[in-house]
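Why does residue order matter? Because the sequence determines the fold. Keep that principle in mind as you read this record.
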Amino acid sequence: MTGKNSQTNLHSGNPKQSIRLVLQDGTTFVGQSFGFNQSVAGEVVFNTAMSGYPESLTDPSYRGQILVLTYPLIGNYGVPPMIREHDVLKYFESENIHTKALVVSEYSAEASHWNSWKTLSQWLVENKIPAISGIDTRALTSYIREKGVMAGKIIFNDEDVEFDDTDSINLVDQVSTKEVITYGSGQYKVVLVDCGVKTNIIRRLLQRDVTVIRVPWNHNFLKMEYDGLFISNGPGNPKMLTATISNLAKAIDDNKPIFGICLGNQLLALAAGGDTYKLKYGHRSHNQPVRMLNSNQCFITSQNHGFATDISTLGSDWEELFVNLNDQTNEGIRHRSKPIFSTQFHPEASSGPTDTDFLFDDFVELIKKSQL
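Structure:
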């Protein structure tokens, strides 16, 4: 049970080494530490996926957040090795862990998998990421669904910290590249505006004869030569990225193809004169059903976002492309006459497992047609 100032799963070890999760409304959960021993604060969010914790922990979209995993057993397949492929890490979504802390029900100290490089605990400690187990994560998730996402903190050994207001922090500036980076030598040049891009997006583009030119979130790409523009996923409130929105609004006036994913969907909407809003508890899972508008096609998608596009605020030049079948929120938009579209879900994340991978093909086809 959870509630105001309630405590669950009391730590049976040395009380001087206690660790607890405290929500902003005072609700408290006590468990055991299996990560780095320090106190941290962040926004508490939950993910209902059954696997993929190495990818989630390194997803820049989780920057500033305390991640709660509802699947009951975490760590049983360890952590894969840091092997590079196409100049990016093969098994991770970025170079670093971005979550502030990890909350699980049961941690498996022993890992068994052909590709296991080290245990989850070892990896977390090396990267100075706190983690707490012994928490009823499903009860915690039900509480967040009822009350909405809120600030929280992991308190280790009574070393208190202040709560964070992540909505007022430019988290994208923390995760975006600081320099221009080029990947591959494909026929088509795509400028990727890095708001916290997942490496699998880069992989998907490279597989399609594309040269990826990765630029910082506030980079003036309008002066660059490119065949297509890609706006990446990323963390935080999209309205804080005024430089990106301004540049993107000018790019829309051009006829070059544009593709946005997740935060890229929200930024495209803002650049088009629309509005965005914060969801009560967001979409973070591998099983979100979406439907393509004007069709009977439905897809199971991977998602990780806390904000959404208000489709009613977009002008007549735009139309909704996808809709979420759980809550009817927007899952993508498309310009009615220009080669511009976006998705709120992650087509690179192989949830279906490759049901929506065709969207990358669509983007490259738009580039090819624009050159005729």
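The chain has eight helices and 21 strands.
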